[in-house]
Structures are given as structure tokens and as C-alpha cells.
Give the backbone structure.
Amino acid sequence: MELGRRRIAKPMGVGCHFGKEQTMKKMYMKYLIFLVPIILVSCKLTNTTQKIPEPEPKPHFRNQGEQEDYWAKQVFAKEYTKSEYPKFVGEIKIVSDSKIQFNEIQYAELWNSKPEYKLIFENGLLYPEILGFDNLQIRSLEELTFLSNSPTVKRFRFLLFSLAMNPDVYLFELTNETANKNTNWESFIENAKLTFIKYGWTMI
């Protein structure tokens, strides 16, 4: 009597378990594919936010003059906006070597400055109303040649004295679009415009 081949029955649940395992592996791989880019982007953002910009090196000044020149550069670098201020309209009278009068009411006095700088006031480019004062007591008006390399632009600094104990430093700019390197001072002022004026700081 020939015995038939015995079929070996598979344990119950093996096929089902194997199918679940494959499904779990596929889900796991999909999860990894989805998660890895998020982790990389997160790391990149974390690295970016952790970077702290290095502070600018603090300038070393050998004297007060160098410090004030630096402050002047900062004003023009950070607060400069080119505008066009009107010239004074009215009577301008030269009262003395240092005093200019505007409409017999207001005046500007200029001390410790080059005599030719009076032309700025005589031509109505600077006058008390521009700064909101009735009178101007100005000292140490000087051109800051290191702040302009164009023959059409001249920049200046002066001390303005008022009732306060310490004077204020003001910076201003004159522009003459027709000027060139051969233009003399008188011609420059005659066709110049006030294009910037700004309070800088108070002297201590």
C-alpha cells in the first residue's frame, strides 16, 4: 500500500504575519523618506539661527578730532537724505566782519572761521529760519574734505551756540551741479544749493 505524500501544513498565522511585516516595512520606509528632509531642513535652520554676527571692531581714536570725524562720517552714512532747501528771500545786510542780518530781525554771527565762509550766509544758503532759531551763534565752521571726492559737493561742520551750556554740532552739504575741479569758491557758492543739514551731537 503506497502511502501518499504527507502535506506539511503551514503554521496558522505565518502568512498573515509575514504580510503584516512587509506592510510595516513599507510604511516605515515611507515615514523615513518623509522625515529625513524635515530633519535636514530643521538642522539647517538651527545652524542658521545659532550664528551670531560678529560685532564691528570698535574704532581706536588717538584724539577727539578723530572721534568727531568718525561721528561725522556716521551721520552722512546712516542719516543722509538729499533734499533741496530754499534760499533766503528778503534783505540780507552785512553788519560787521562777523555778523550778517536777515530782514532786520534775525542775524547770524560767525566766529573762528574762514572769512570766505560768510558767503554761505550772504547768499542766503544758511539762515536762522532753516534751523528754527531767531539768531545763530556759529563757531568753527569748517569744510570736511574727507567726506566728498566730487567737485560738485562740499560738506561742512560747525558749532551752534545757544542758551544751553554746551554747543551742538551741525553738519550740512552744499551742491553745485555745474561745478568742476577748476571752479573757485565764489562761483561755487553763487550757484550752490543747500542739500542737507542735520544735528550731529552735543559737545561735552
